Amino acid sequence: MFKKIKTKIVAGTSILQVGAHSETAEKVQGFYAKSPFPNFDDHASLVDLVDNKNKNTFLYNLKDQLGLGKKLIEVGSGTSQLSIMLSHGTNNQVIAFDATLDSLRLGEAFTRKYNLPNCNFVLGDLFSDPFEDEFFDFVWCSGVLHHTDDPEGGFEIISKWLKKDGIIIVGLYNKIGRLRTNFRQFIFRCMRPFWFAKKVIFFLDPIIRSQTSKVKKEAWFQDQYLHPIESKHTLSEILKWFDANGIGFVSSVPTCTSEQVNMKNIFKIQSRGSVLSQIVSQLAFLFGPNSREGGLFLVIGRKR
Ligand SMILES: C[S@@+](CC[C@H](N)C(=O)[O-])C[C@H]1O[C@@H](n2cnc3c(N)ncnc32)[C@H](O)[C@@H]1O
């Protein structure tokens, strides 16, 4: 699975460490160590995780359609709920891969508590390119590349890890869809003192308001308002990344046209639309309920 790269077990855990961190990954690890993301609810249990998946049409169908006997990786898994959920009750081999040890530790403790053997935790920097080419059937990378110096270069690396016919899902901040968050970020930066500005954001941000867990509220606040590295992207830009790396477009959320997203069959090929229809769709996304999630859009592809 790994390239010829230095690996060791992190003392006192089953987490495997691969390669060395770049300067930026060190910085990111320092940031998330203080507030691992997305973190667990105060009393989160395996039942809650399964329940969340069952209530989310996208995740429910994703897990179902991925099938069994597969090799999956979540790049930048944070506290790794998605990896844990995808591994649970399957014989899939899931790798939760992240640059922040403190985040992986929380996920690993959860899998130990519930005896979930097929989710494995790997600490490393994606830019050290630690995995073999064409190894995984499924690569998921959401909320990660826009926190790196070179999102496109990062995409090139992780798409190499995908087998022919394998599926990749990438989630990034959308240039248009994130404008509501950008407006709140602007208000936050204009206000003083810090404690007051933070209180205003806790009142304005819909995700913070809907959370009951204090640690999750704090993790979201840190990630959305204090992150040192953040970039934004468009559908047409990601389609160019896909073309350059031999990835065929399958679908996106939002779609590239006025078509509705078919959450029940996200692997059904959609139209790429035109630059104009993509802009209109991203504008509609800005005013729709999904832009609550910080304007994160998903693009799904299949390796040719
Ligand atoms: C916003 S969190 C997203 C966590 C998870 N994907 C989610 O959506 O809930 C970003 C994660 O990316 C990880 N990350 C950032 N740069 C990375 C890199 N170069 N290599 C591996 N992980 C990285 C961070 O440690 C952090 O846990």
What features would you describe in this structure?
This protein has 304 residues and is α/β, with parallel strands linked by helices. It folds into two domains: 7-175 and 229-303, Vaccinia Virus protein VP39 (Rossmann fold), CATH 3.40.50; 179-225, no CATH class. It has twelve helices and nine strands. Strands 1-2-5-4-3-6-7-9-8 form a nine-stranded mixed sheet, sandwiched between helices. The chain starts with 6 loop residues before the first strand and ends with a strand. It binds S-adenosylmethionine. Residues 25, 28, 32, 37-38, 76-78, 98-100, 103, 125-127, 142-144, 147-148, 223 line the site of S-adenosylmethionine.
Low-confidence stretches: none
Per CATH, the class of the largest domain reads Alpha Beta
Order of helices and strands: EEHHHEHEHEEHEHHHHHEHE
CATH superfamily of the largest domain: Vaccinia Virus protein VP39
